[in-house]
Amino acid sequence: MCGIVGYIGQKEAWPIIVKGLKRLEYRGYDSAGIALVAQGINSYKKAGKVTDLEAFAEGKDLRGRVGIGHTRWATHGEPSDRNAHPHFSEDERLAIVHNGIIENYATLKEELASRGHTFKSDTDTEVLIHLIADIMEAENTDLLEAVRIALTQVVGAYAIVIADREHPNQLVAARKGSPMVIGIGEKEYFIASDASPIIEYTRNVVYLKDQEIAFISDDALLLKNIDNEVQTPYIQKLEMHLEMLEKAGYEHFMLKEIHEQPRSIRDCMRGRIYPQEGKVQLGGIKEYAEKLRNADRIIIVACGTSWHAGLVGEYLIEEYARVPVGVEYASEFRYRNPIITEKDIVIAISQSGETADTMAAVELAKERGATILGICNVVGSSIPRLTHGGVYTHAGPEIGVASTKAFTAQVTVLTLIALYTAQLRGTLPQSKLVELLTALEDAPLLVERALKCDEATQYIASEIKDSTNAIFLGRGIGFPVALEGALKLKEISYIHAEGYPAAEMKHGPIALIDKEMPVVVIATKNSSYEKVISNIQEVKARKGRVIAIVTEGDTAVRELADYVIEIPDAEEALLPLLATVPLQLLSYHTALLRGCNVDQPRNLAKSVTVE
Predict the structure, then answer these.
(1) Which positions ≥6 away from 112 have C-beta within 8 Å?
(2) Is the dihedral of CA 563, 569, 572, 577 positive or negative?
(3) Radius of gyration for the alpha carbons in the chain, expressed in angstroms and rounded
(4) N or C: which end of the chain has fewer CB within 10 A?
(5) Residues 548 and 521 sit within 8 Å (Cβ to Cβ)
(6) Are 235 and 265 within one domain?
(7) CB 192 within 8 A of CB 175
(8) Are strands 518-522 and 469-474 parallel, antiparallel or unpaired?
(9) Cβ distance 16 to 595 under 8 Å?
(10) Are residues 311 and 427 in the same domain?
């Protein structure tokens, strides 16, 4: 969840690390800190954001060509100056930054305390650096070997970078379950949780693998695994561009990313659909075509917004490919002893490719013989490496913590997988495939038209901004859209919101409806249109305020609803792509009017890399 930046080379480290931490604040922003190695180690850390750290360090000694930095999402210990990273060994020789959780830290802490160690923070990270220092002394060994031995004793996830006062031109880094990438420059190296802090300095990177340890000096990179075997670095070229990380004139990253959806959906489909031929081509899973053709069932595992995309996938795959689909919360999947066979296909969805629960679900399913396919946005991340095959979404970097373009890109890929599987299994006539793919090809243009609802959503936001609760209702494929709309509103505006299947309203939620309650209804003209109109009438009979997402030109719902937002008329399979857009904008404008931080909502981080 936290963000790590490290630098070693010929430049001053402070400005590089500060800029990198700002790019990683989507991973956590409870506190921040930097340690600089020069004549000794100077460390500055502060609760709050990176800008608070900058203000705190102004006028202080910021010299040093080696440094490590951290922006925190708190797990062990409340956000505070003393719990901010970096943390130190007792003699302050070693400094560490850490992303992850050391699950057995309490046992290790008790053992170290019995040997005379004292601790200054509440964090598991400080325990780890004390353990490493203890091993260095007890075994009379160097830092690299002490790190290796220590990591054989810890349980949990980690990405760490360690600086050593006695060897100021060296850093040691390691990872397991938490992401880490090393950028290779000219006699300099950059270390980060993802590529965003690195891209303006080099395109050559090495993604550390699980249980790999890196020894880095200003002119050398050595990789070992935890078994002390030397590894050959695999250098990759970054596809990311610096302009992708800027706001491009938008007030917030979230708004920029909402408006990027026509492009991201188009990029997601490029080279994969041939509407005139009625053909889908997915090279990343082509090798597993026979498995898809003969699968007994498909299991989708994901968390949060990706789980909502998975629900859309369930509707589409079952409708078009006629394969039973189950959608599982990855966080629960591994703990209930699921029944998995070798004929099952498991699809893991994660924007970052580093979601800890989803990775754990993948590993469990893989152990039991299932074929694992991934849907991911970040090239080189862990889930693409763990899965047998997969499809990248190509949505580009998503900086706003609340997912927008990642969701619609995932839905696009799931639509492609549904039609690809239908093509393999012969469950759709060729004419229907041509019709659906032609409609899908038009999706970017339709989303552009849907974005024109911005003014309407601003007005409705001004009407509901003081609400404390909201309900989102949808039927069929509109139900996952309702769930996603509710999640966006609660994430960034802090209004409590829940999504329900519209018919379930009568089984409890209807008790909440009064004249103060906004009820957002997905009411487009589809197979359940008449039923949804009945649900709206039930809400109006109890004086609820109805905000309806309707098809252009609709008159029946307009007569009933208090507020209406129109989206283009389109094939029902495109409903999630089109109806999601006004819900994103509604949440955005509501949050702005409530004075919330849209890009960095409280208590949240973009990538959940801990359980």
Answers:
(1) 127, 130, 131, 134
(2) negative
(3) 25
(4) C
(5) yes
(6) no
(7) no
(8) parallel
(9) no
(10) yes
Which of residues 441, 471, 506 is at a domain's end?
441
Same domain, 256 and 188: no
Query: Of these residues, 45, 46, 405, 606, which one is catalytic?
Result: 606
- The per-residue pLDDT for range 460-507, each reduced to its tens digit, is 999 999 999 999 999 999 999 999 999 999 999 999 999 999 888 778
What is the domain range of residue 592?
Answer: 451-598
**Alpha carbon distance 52, 364 (integer Å):** 42
- Tell me, yes or no, whether 200 and 323 share the same domain: no
Could you tell me if residue 512 is inside a domain? yes
End position of a domain, from candidates 394, 416, 441: 441
Q: Is the pLDDT of residue 245 over 70?
A: no
427 vs 472: CA distance, rounded Å: 33
Whether the CB-CB separation of 195 and 188 falls below 8 Å is answered with no
Exactly one of 2, 303, 376, 596 is catalytic; which is it?
2
Amino acid at site 270: R
The verdict on residue 610 lying in a domain is no
Say if residue 88 is in the same domain as residue 135. Answer: yes
**Same-domain pairing of 53 and 202:** yes
H helices present in 342-477, as ranges: 356-367, 382-386, 405-425, 430-441, 443-450, 454-464
Both structure tokens of 279: 């053909």
376 in catalytic set:
no
Taking CA atoms, 215 is separated from 128, 237, 313, in Å, by 18, 21, 43
- On the question of a cis peptide bond just before residue 576, with omega within 30 degrees of 0, the verdict is no
Q: Is the pLDDT reported for residue 610 higher than 60?
A: no
326, containing H or E segment: strand 325-329
For residues 435 and 457, state if they share a domain.
no
Do 9 and 143 sit in the same domain of this protein?
Answer: yes
One-letter amino acid for residue 298 of the chain: I
Count of domains in the chain? 3
Distance from C-alpha of 380 to C-alpha of 239, rounded to nearest angstrom:
11
pLDDT, tens digit, for every residue of 337-364?
899 999 999 999 999 888 889 989 999 9
Establish if 359 belongs to a structural domain: yes
Cα 226 to chain center, whole Å? 28
User: What would the two tokens of residue 160 be?
Assistant: 């760490």
- Taken in order 481, 484, 488, 490, the sign of the CA dihedral is positive
2: annotated active-site residue:
yes
Evaluate whether residue 609 is within a structural domain: no
